[in-house]
């Protein structure tokens, strides 16, 4: 699992939006091979969505061959309701980009058979070969999607009763009136999210700092469903400084040091978007090994006894020349040291 820390919400949104853009572009989706993207709602991804809209308007990102699956939807709320997740997604993202309407998948909280609606949703994901990247947020109690504390970590898309804390947290979207907040929702399961080939979570604000600490520093626990990301082979959390308030200082320093190594020592040009080592870095390492081998051979005078010169490439010749220069510099240094000790010994009238 990787943890990326940025200064504030704006920087987090910029990082995540750029990451999503690059993942889609590097995937090079087509009609036959679309990029399947899981998406959240709530306050966390709004900044990301607005920046994705900007990328699309600038011609840097196309949604033509992107298929989306949203995490959840309220039960009983009309799709055109101002607080439905259908309305949220179209207002903040979909109507501003070139995505095809039939490529958008949002659960129907008004379906006559809610269980069947959930099964169809899972089947559609499977039909497309799974989700490539699932972008998510969390609640203050560490729930991912509407997988409230105590949810099974092997859960699939289903009907879920909302926890009271979640109802209170979402009351701000309903004029502050708790009674107007739906009490049921359809949600993807924890396993649905974790089945994605990559999971990326956005966590910002001091009110989510305890959940982040539970996720990063403690074990996998169904009372903090976000902690399931620890088991994912390509899990990534992007957070702001406020969200790290409950983490140990050494934990934050550790993850920042990893990013420092990536950028300052290995070099961003040698790393893929997901932190994987690129081919050219391997080639560079191999060339360095060859130079070291040739240098060692030169220093040890490990030439053929008959003096025959072996065939060599220009790279080998350059490496030999470099090795010879290093050897000569070493010999000069040894001669200077020897002369120094001889003069010092004579002055002190002692043996070196």
UniProtKB/TrEMBL annotation:
One of its GO terms (molecular function) is identical protein binding. Its EC number is 3.5.99.6. Keywords: Carbohydrate metabolism, Hydrolase. The keyword Phosphoprotein does not apply. Residues 301-352 are annotated as: Disordered. InterPro entries: Glc/Gal-6P_isomerase, Glucosamine6P_isomerase, Glucosamine6P_isomerase_CS, NagB/RpiA_transferase-like. It catalyses: alpha-D-glucosamine 6-phosphate + H2O = beta-D-fructose 6-phosphate + NH4(+). Pfam families: Glucosamine_iso (PF01182). Signal peptide: none annotated. One of its GO terms (cellular component) is cytosol. The keyword Hydrolase applies. Residues 319-329 have a biased composition (Low complexity). GO terms for biological process: carbohydrate metabolic process; glucosamine catabolic process; N-acetylglucosamine catabolic process; N-acetylneuraminate catabolic process. Residues 10-230 form the Glucosamine/galactosamine-6-phosphate isomerase domain. Belongs to the glucosamine/galactosamine-6-phosphate isomerase family. Catalyzes the reversible conversion of alpha-D-glucosamine 6-phosphate (GlcN-6P) into beta-D-fructose 6-phosphate (Fru-6P) and ammonium ion, a regulatory reaction step in de novo uridine diphosphate-N-acetyl-alpha-D-glucosamine (UDP-GlcNAc) biosynthesis via hexosamine pathway. This is Glucosamine-6-phosphate isomerase. It comes from Lichtheimia ornata.
């Amino acid at each position: 699992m990787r943890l990326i820390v940025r200064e504030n919400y704006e920087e987090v949104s910029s990082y995540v939006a750029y990451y999503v853009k690059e993942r889609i572009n590097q995937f090079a989706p087509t009609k036959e091979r679309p990029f399947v993207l899981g998406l959240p709602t709530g306050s966390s991804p709004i900044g990301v969505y607005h920046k994705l809209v900007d990328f699309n308007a600038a011609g840097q990102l196309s949604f033509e061959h992107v298929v989306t699956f949203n995490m959840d939807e309220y039960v009983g709320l009309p799709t055109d309701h101002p607080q439905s997740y259908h309305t949220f997604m179209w207002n903040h993202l979909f109507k501003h980009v070139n995505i095809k309407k039939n490529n958008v998948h949002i659960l129907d909280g008004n379906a006559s058979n809610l269980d069947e609606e959930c099964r169809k949703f899972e089947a559609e994901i499977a039909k497309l070969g799974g989700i490539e990247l699932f972008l998510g947020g969390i609640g203050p109690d560490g729930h991912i999607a509407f997988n409230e504390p105590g949810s099974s970590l092997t859960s699939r898309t289903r009907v879920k009763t909302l926890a009271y804390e979640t109802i209170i947290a979402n009351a701000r979207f309903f004029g502050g009136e708790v009674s107007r907040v739906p009490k049921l929702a359809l949600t993807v399961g924890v396993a649905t999210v974790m089945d994605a080939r990559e999971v990326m979570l956005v966590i910002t604000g001091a009110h989510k700092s305890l959940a982040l600490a539970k996720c990063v520093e403690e074990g996998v626990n169904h009372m903090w469903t976000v902690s399931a990301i620890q088991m994912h082979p390509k899990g990534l959390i992007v957070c702001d400084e406020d969200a790290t308030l409950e983490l140990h200082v050494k934990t934050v320093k550790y993850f920042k040091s990893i990013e420092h190594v990536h950028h300052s020592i290995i070099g961003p040009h040698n790393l893929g978007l997901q932190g994987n080592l690129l081919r050219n870095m391997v080639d560079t390492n191999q060339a360095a090994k060859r130079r070291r081998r040739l240098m060692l051979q030169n220093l040890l005078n490990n030439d053929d006894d008959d003096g025959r010169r072996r065939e060599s490439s220009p790279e080998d010749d350059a490496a030999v020349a470099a090795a010879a220069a290093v050897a000569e510099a070493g010999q000069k240094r040894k001669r200077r040291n020897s002369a120094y000790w001889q003069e010092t010994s004579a002055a002190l009238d002692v043996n070196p």
